[in-house]
Amino acid sequence: MENPYELTNKIALITGGAEGIGFGIANVFINLGGKVVITGRTWETLQKAKQNLGENCLIYQNDVTDKNSHRNLIDFIENEAGSLDILVNNAGKHLKKNTLEVTDDEYQSVLDTNLNSVFALTRATLKGMIQRQRGSVIFISSMSALYGLEKVIAYTSSKTALLGMTRALASEYSNTGVRFNAIAPGFIETKMLAQVMENDPERKSRVLRRTPAGRFGKTEEIGMAAAFLASDASQFITGVCLPVDGGNAIGF
Fold it and tell me: Fewer CB atoms < 10 Å away: N or C end of the chain?
């Protein structure tokens, strides 16, 4: 039996793949034999990521909220790499603010990036996957979808809705050979997290006390979970949310 965990000859699209968790996922996918297309809004950041990821990484400058551009993105992938096997909906927008101070425009902006655009891109890629009778769609949700966090009402709403989207799509289309799963990352070592924790040592201490593993996660650890859900090793897994959090969701 061939190694079911490898991604050789599989082609993945990772939105927001030039930095943070998206970059960690791209790095793992490539190391397992896959070819990735990463998107982002800043060309310079994409170029830097490609230099680190190598020849099996293609870059495409794109804002996921520009839904009219999704067809051009898919055409680029098919022309430059081949048929898409894996979609990782990673690009997202965060907003930390007292709920009563969040404007309608701010709330809608977060939902448009984290939810509406994810649906539109998934719908666009799903048509080809259904025709080919194979594919894995992975949604990057959040621990905020599993328990309450203050001052992130828009972010929490969007990431929780992704879990409903995961289950609905799995129920409707898993009989076509396409699978749909979500990952809920815990506190992962990124530049953003480092800045937050440096400015709030009490919060850092509280987070680590609640996390049974006693440390922050690494972006590559999200990548390994995504690789499992993208690979043939998980071919009978669909409609689930996998927390990758060192036990934070069950910590006390």
Answer: N
Query: Please, are residues 114 and 158 in contact by the beta-carbon 8 Å criterion?
Result: yes
116-150 pLDDT per residue, tens: 999 999 999 999 999 999 999 999 999 999 998 89
Return the C-alpha torsion angle 96, 100, 105, 109, nearest 10. Answer: 30
pLDDT above 90 covers a percentage of the chain that reads 90
The 8-class DSSP code of residue 8 comes to T
Q: Nearest Cα to 67, choosing from 138, 135, 122, 139?
A: 122
- The yes-or-no answer on residue 173 being catalytic is no
Is the model's pTM score more than 0.85? Answer: yes
Contact 52, 28 (CB under 8 A): no
Q: C-alpha 116: how far from its chain's center? A: 15
| Domain chopping of the chain, boundaries | 11-189+219-246
What's the rounded Cα separation, in Å, for the pair 27 and 182? 19
| Active-site residue (options: 60, 107, 147, 155) | 155
Question: pLDDT (tens digit, 9 = 90+) per residue, 164-175?
Answer: 999 999 999 999
DSSP conformation class of 68? G
Pairing of the two strands 178-185 and 86-89: unpaired
Q: What would you report as the CA-atom Rg of the chain, rounded to the nearest whole angstrom?
A: 17
Contact 85, 134 (CB under 8 A): yes
Nearest to 146 by CA among 244, 24, 215, 218: 244
